[in-house]
Amino acid sequence: MNTNTSLFFTPVVRRRKALSQPVAAIILVVIVTALALIVGVLTLARIGVFARSESIRVIEAQSYLQGTGASTCIYVNAKVKNDGSTTITDITVTARWGGNAASVGSIGDLVPGAEASAAACVTGLGANRGDLIVVEASGSGSSGTIRHATSVPVV
To answer: CATH number of the domain at 56-153, please?
Structure first.
């Protein structure tokens, strides 16, 4: 009598269905490439934090019309901040309206994170109350001239 064909003990035949070796190799290559790209992007992002950047910003500016007649001037006050990671040198502040420009003052050098102000009563712009003048800060960095400008109304 054959014991392998009893009612309770039937032989189990397992069929194996698996990926072929070339398909498994392709999937493995895709996974490894994706992981390498993720690691590379994260590494470059961390390195980018320490990269040098040069940036100045006019964070505050006001302009007021003062005087009457021939003694009229525009009092301009500008606060400049070094937003970069390197020192910016020879920073000057200029007020512009139309084709006219006037120097507000020189700040000198700013280390990263530092702020400084320049103020003066400028003449020759030709602007009146309500006109927008451009206040520009410019300085020298290792990559050339660094600039930032903002518009403020004359009040």
So the answer is: 2.60.40.10
